[in-house]
Amino acid sequence: MSHITTAITTSQTIGPFSHAAWQWAVDASAAATLETSAPTITISGTIYDGDGTPINDAQIEAWQPEAAGAEAAQALPGFRRVPSGEKGEFSLRLSQCAAPVSGAPATFITVFARGLVKHQFTAVFLEDDSGLAQSEILAQVPAERRATLVARKTAPGVYHWDIWMQSDKETAFFDYA
């Protein structure tokens, strides 16, 4: 017998049951039960495939390391996981630290969705952040693609940001080495 090695990773073998398998983190990071000592913001949007069809089975994760102190009572401080809805919609309620670093992302995002062999990493910034022009992360993104990472303010503390997995509207995604 010969031994065959493959380069399959765990992200390639998750299978069709990710929503059920990952529900514990959705429950542990639910916006309705968020306990935080900081003010909050909400970033909502829709996740789309390359044809503009909403993706109804994605998982969106948000990471805010600087919010861990404000969310010490949470099971997973500084972390959110939300599934997209039937129309691809998602909503993230996030702690906004009292003195956020100007030009820093509001949160780092990981996207898991059908058809992805490997999850994708990105970040979302707030349009009313006066430090966007000095952002070290945004400076790494071609100027014509930076807007794909910026959430538009629609009301006080409320922002809209869509995720496009492909097309000329594709959200800028990052590779980590």
UniProtKB/TrEMBL annotation:
SUPFAM superfamilies: Aromatic compound dioxygenase. InterPro entries: Intradiol_dOase_core (IPR015889), Intradiol_RC_Dioxygenase (IPR050770). The keyword Glycosyltransferase does not apply. Keywords: Dioxygenase, Oxidoreductase. GO terms for molecular function: iron ion binding; oxidoreductase activity, acting on single donors with incorporation of molecular oxygen, incorporation of two atoms of oxygen. This is Protocatechuate 3,4-dioxygenase.
